Amino acid sequence: MITLDDVTMEWEGKKVLSDINLSVGSHDFIAITGPNGGGKTTLLRIMLKLLNPTSGTVTYRDNDGDEVKRLPIGYLPQKNSIDSKFPLTVSDVISTGLLGAAGLSKADKKERVEETIDLVQLRTHASHTIGELSGGQLQRALLGRALISRPRVLVLDEPLSYLDKHFEHETYRLLESLAPTTSIVLVSHEMSTIAEMATRHLIVNHTIHECTSAHHHFIMTCDQ
Q1: Under DSSP, is residue 17 helix (H, G, I), strand (E, B) or coil?
Q2: Checking DSSP bridges between strand 29-33 and strand 200-204, what pairing results, if any?
Q3: Which residue intervals of the chain are DSSP H helices?
Q4: DSSP-assigned letter for residue 86
């Protein structure tokens, strides 16, 4: 569904990513790790067409293999850019994930928001403004925003950040339930559980190394 061909990204003459070739297929669960500054977030942003690479191409294809300009993608960024002083409620944040969604009535959208609030376990905080939330609660709201459109591709950059252990385990269960129907690309430093769920594992350090196994012990070997 997503193909990166010969992608290179430079900042101020320095190569952040070099000669990247990567395909994301239907129902892939790709776990990405690597050192800080290795280009993981840049890779995701190029994949999402939020950044144009210095060279190379990013191609989206639909279920029939035809090239398309856009795909239904849900995205949880590593660092949110929401101003905590802005008077958005949890419901508002989650509902922004439906902007541009076609074929949903106002009632359908409201029902989807309510379902997603419960999914990320923020029912008692639904009317709270984001300035009233803890870091973990805001992360859950942003995860809800990424999930609400029921995207074909889910891109998550450090989704476990700020989460307490309870919702970390809930997130694992949620990803496990989505994996059969959704392609997942996930960046995390915490791979002990994710590795067992992933179908592919990549090490990103300016280039890509793909391990031949997603099992935890093999990842430790790849990292060395």
Answers
A1: strand
A2: parallel
A3: 40-47, 90-95, 106-119, 135-147, 165-178, 194-197, 216-223
A4: S
User: For the chain, what are the domain ranges?
Assistant: 1-71+152-224, 81-151
pTM over 0.85: yes
- Joined together, the tokens standing for residue 127 give 């009317």
Residue 106 neighbours by CB under 8 Å, 6+ apart: none
CATH number 3.30.2170.10 is the correct assignment for the domain at 1-71+152-224: no
Task: In whole angstroms, give the CA distance from residue 94 to residue 146.
Answer: 8
Q: Dig out the tokens for 3 from the structure.
A: 């193909």
Of residues 153, 154, 156, the one with CA closest to residue 139: 156
* Tens-digit pLDDT profile for residues 86-130: 889 999 999 999 987 778 899 999 999 999 999 999 999 999 999
Kindly report, residue by residue over 9-34, the tens digit of the pLDDT: 999 889 999 999 999 999 899 999 99
Q: Which of 147, 176, 177, 171 is nearest to 159 (CA)?
A: 171
Q: Which amino acid is at 7?
A: V
Tokens of 64: 């029939």
Q: Distance between CA 12 and CA 7 in Å, rounded? A: 17
